[in-house]
Amino acid sequence: MIDKFINKIYQGDCLELFKNILDNSIDITFADPPFNLKKNYTSYDDSLEFQEYLNWCEKWIFEMVRVTKPTGSIFLHNIPKWLTYYATYLNKFAHFKHWISWDAPTAPMGKSLQPAHYGILFYTKKEKGAKIYELRHPHKRDRKQGYLLKDYGGKKDGLHPFGPLISDVWTDIHRIKHNTKRNPHPCQLPIHLMDRLILMTTEQNDIVLDPFSGTGTTAISAKRLGRRYIGFELDNNYVEISEQRLSKTLPNFKLGENWVSFYLNDIVTIKDIDWNELKQYFIIPEPLRTIDYERARIKDKKLIPSESEVLIDNNKIINKKSNKISKEKDNILFKEFEQLIFSGNVQSSMSAVQPKL
Ligand SMILES: C[S@@+](CC[C@H](N)C(=O)[O-])C[C@H]1O[C@@H](n2cnc3c(N)ncnc32)[C@H](O)[C@@H]1O
Known about the structure:
The protein is an alpha/beta fold. 24% of the residues lie in helices and 22% in strands.
């Protein structure tokens, strides 16, 4: 039943579109709503009255929980002020797991403390039985010397060769600052932020739904990690940009059989349970204590997929990948991948955009 809605970004109001999604049918839901900070959206007034904004938020939060499977998770991204109200509401019918603090300069700037993190509320639908995987990120190092930032003293031989388990404070993912790396959306999220949430709570072929899809960041992350997606977005222009980006995205964020998150020619997130298989692709420093100044490296950089991210330059969409592979070959490759990953279960994302459900 849900299959006919899969792998599409729908243009429209999320509250209307949610009506088409069955209860308990989605593996994870993620929302990055307008923050009511008077941002310059083209089809949305980002300056509602305080209570009006909260009432509206409660409606779509309720829908997110309703459609999420009993094994699934719900993520809400916002500034801390709004998250305190979201949590009070969600505590009534979902289960708190974490408040993830994403270290990034934010707004509004006050006269007390400078806001320096966004929050991501992480809830599960049920108290027990949720799909959750531990993750690892590479050890943090001094940029110039390459030494580990943390002093592990005599315990370096016991370190994990790839890096530590990920905590609820994320300092290694930066907001997109360069215009060449972003599209014309005021609040586009870094895709590897989404990769991390998706790797943490889903498996291959699972379904990820984002009711405020923007320019499709969540959908792209889901697709490149071999997951399925559904996006809702009010603004037709953003839907079109999403379609362009998705048509150039391959489900290829893999090392061997394991899905991983790549960023700038490196791996930024892995599932802990995958390390036993992933380690064959790494040169691991020996003896292990030399990891203090030498990092575990991928044996063959060719294993890293070229970035299939789409760049916008002077309003033209430029696909870095198309420099290497002809468009036709790219499309064939994409279709083959899609069939392989989704077992012919879903429709092609090349025609992903539907005017309405
Ligand atoms: C913070 S942005 C999301 C950005 C997105 N995470 C990205 O990385 O591109 C919020 C989006 O919600 C959309 N939006 C606002 N109200 C909406 C509604 N009622 N239904 C669906 N989308 C809506 C806005 O147009 C905007 O693109």
